[in-house]
Amino acid sequence: MTSPQYRIEGTDRLMGRLIPSPNFSHLYRNYSLAVAVAVKSLADPTCQEVRVVHVPTGEIVFQTTAQPQIY
Predict the structure, then answer these.
(1) d(CA 29, CA 55)
(2) Domain total for the chain?
(3) Is residue 59 part of a domain?
(4) Domain annotation covers residue 71
(5) pLDDT value at position 54?
(6) What's the 3-state SS for the chain?
(7) pLDDT for 1-54, tens place per residue?
(8) Which of 22, 39, 51, 68 has its CA at a distance of 20 to 30 angstroms from the CA of residue 8?
(9) Residue 68 covered by a domain
C-alpha cells in the first residue's frame, strides 16, 4: 500500500464532514479522493481557492481559482 502523498490547502477555512481537520495536516493516499474532498468542502468554488498538493514534489496537482466579485 502506498503512503499518503496528497494534502489539501486553501486560502479560506474549509468546512464540512469530509474534512478531518481544519488545519490541512491530513494527507490522502489517493489523488482522486483528495480532489473530491477539496471541492466538496467549498461553499462556492467560484469564490474560494483550494489546492491539492503532491507532498513529495510540492507540485500543485489541482487548483480552483477564486474569481473577483464585480458589483
Answers:
(1) 11
(2) 1
(3) yes
(4) no
(5) 96
(6) CCCCCEEEEECCCCCCCCCCCCCCCCEECCHHHHHHHHHHCCCCCCCCCEEEEECCCCEEEEECCCCCCCC
(7) 578 899 988 877 666 666 665 555 789 999 999 999 888 887 776 778 889 999
(8) 68
(9) no
